[in-house]
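Hey, quick one: can you model this chain's 3D structure?
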Amino acid sequence: MKNKRWGIGLIMFGERQAEEPSPPPEPLKEPKIDTTETTRALGVENYENPFYKDQPSSILSSLGSVLVVIGTALVIFAAARNTITWHAQKFWGASGDFWQAQWDKFLDVAGEDPTYLWVFGSTAITFGVYWLFGGIYTFLDVTNMPKVIRRYKIQPGTNEPVDRTKLMKVIWCVLLNQIAVGIPSSYLMYYSMKWRGFPGIRELPTFHWVLYELAIHILVEEAAFYYSHRFLHSKHIYKYIHKQHHEWTAPIAVTAIYCHPVEHIFSNLVPPFLGVFIMGSHVATAWLWFTLAILSTLNAHSGYHLPFFPSPEAHDFHHLKFNNCFGVLGVLDRIHGTDAAFRQTRAYLRHIMMLSFIPPRVAIPDTQLTKMKYWKMQHESKQQ
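Sure thing. Here's the predicted structure for all 384 residues.
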């Protein structure tokens, strides 16, 4: 009976406690982040990036991370070297003669004039690849078909469909760069290669040597493009040259070389060519490299993060905020700390090759806060 009275007393006490109104929760306040000092240290424009959080910059720390990755890759490669070499030699022995035979047939028709191959052959290859694959992306942007592709948009709601007046302006500028700037530049590059010396036209290089040269081309382009691109963002020249390219805060594929002619020469043409010049590459190797470089920049500007494609999130973020992600691979951005703001975003988590058909924004969704910041960034970009 005593226990029962205690039980009734506790229930009544609980009811009285429940009747007392609880104080309303204080609203969460987002801390205001000052990015002035960090962006000044980076030497780039401060566009008041809402994602930015100051981090202690440590080049040695970043360089250490890069060295760990490279060192691990070298250890794995060294362990598997004999197997890889054996398979590569077997592959080249089976297919090398085939490709040499096809190259001989091509030269029998086109001729072996190095001027013709280096100038007009390179122009035809780059022009064809750019508009074949760029045209496919443009079809997606103009028609919004198939609808399933829109699930892979990096900036949903942009260019759906693309403004046709702006698109025609881009196409005209790109054609002008490819013809009026590209062909004379091809002549200069040919005479540079003639002065430097290049291998004979008829014999193709070995499979191993092609892979080695491509690795050098990638590294040289990363350095040349990063620093030339960073220079174009200098406050003294940005508005005169590079600002044209950044008219598109949500880029589409064919805007890859929508730019001022000076930028096209020093940021689009010279960086890929430098590796070819340094290595004295065969013209066929140069064509292969130029093709890969064009496919890479089309993908980086496409606005779509498609499955099984390299992630274009970093360069898309660069177009949105201008002051981060200047490189191609991201290695120099990490070393110099010019990806600090990008690494604070959900886009950075999505910056991987998607090995499934799940859209990146579904696999790694935005939080409510990042959605609000994203739309704020888009609004600010349109006002600039």
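One thing worth noting: Confidence is low (pLDDT under 50) at residues 1-19, 30-59.
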